[in-house]
Amino acid sequence: MIGLSRLDPWFRERNASRGTVLYCLCTLPLLGVLWALQSYAQATPAVHVLFNTGRLQVVHAVMGLLISWLVMVGGTAWYRRRRQPAEYGEVLAYLVVTPTLLMMGILWVGYGLLDTPLGMMALEVLILARALFAPRILLPGLVLGLAVVLCSAGLQAGGVMGTSPLLSGPVFTGVALSWWWARWLQVVFHASAWPFVAALLYLFHSLARHKAELETLAHTDTLTGLFNRREFMSRLNIESHRHERSGSLMSVIMLDVDYFKRINDAYGHPAGDIVLARLGGLIRDGLRQNVDVAARMGGEEFAVLLPQTDLAGAERVARKLGEALRDTAFTFDNQPLRVTMSAGVVQVAGGRGELALRVADANVYAAKHAGRDQIVTSAA
Prior knowledge:
The protein has 380 residues and is α+β, with helices and mostly antiparallel strands. Helix content is 66%, strand content 11%. The radius of gyration is 33 Å and the shape is elongated. The two termini are 49 Å apart.
């Protein structure tokens, strides 16, 4: 999965230059296999008679030129991938996608639309192009390739052209395949199938990653990395029911950054985001993993749920977090800034989590009225 993750930027960023490089790297082996098979066929008299010599020579020469072209354009895209404008990258993408799709259409028709697995290979090349580039880049090659396929189908239906123009006769005649076609089909099938399997594996990996990202976004505050309000209320409800059954204690801490509006007004919202992100990290580092629950409730307000914790233990946690924030050095516009917070702590029994949250919030306001940088505790 680590190797697949390294491909994510190539597909997600839709950078035409990098996409051109990856497209060439993926299509060159497919074309190389077909070109090697045709080279062997031309050099072997026993196999050469199975092809239409004139047409094979033309298609083979064009394939050789296309392979050289892809190497040249792919190398150019790699060399200039970080220095060329986006428009130039799109031009390179057009220059590789259009001739490749056209060639795949010609090969599919030449070997028989229904007789060989070249249709699968052509679809793989099309899917790869769609994954890497915007639809407009595919359009010319797709139109030309489909035109070749549809025209050949019409000519074949009218009896003007045979079902396999590159061959001297059909591959499947109702008898056992010759050794050449048996091997040819095996090679082409595997060359088509394994890239398809690799594409499916990457697709499943990508879907799993997107699902995980969506799940994270659904319950996480992106700035601080803590839970969001919705997830906190869900966890609070679950813990409340659990503590109600067990009759044990739990505590809730509400935290609020002092004079946060002044920080935003004086130094800008990016400075405020730095403070919130740092406080989120301090809260995360100061709690028990997989036991305590912390969330950003909105703005500069945070909440901490401490299962199986009495009032004294919760107050120690709040004091520790306040000291950690007070000791954190912030510097904005070359000026040091000391940031503090007010906290409200409440202990509750009987599973009354929402009551604890309201009381803790009231304690925060009491701490602010008492001069800020204070901790107010009570038992609900």
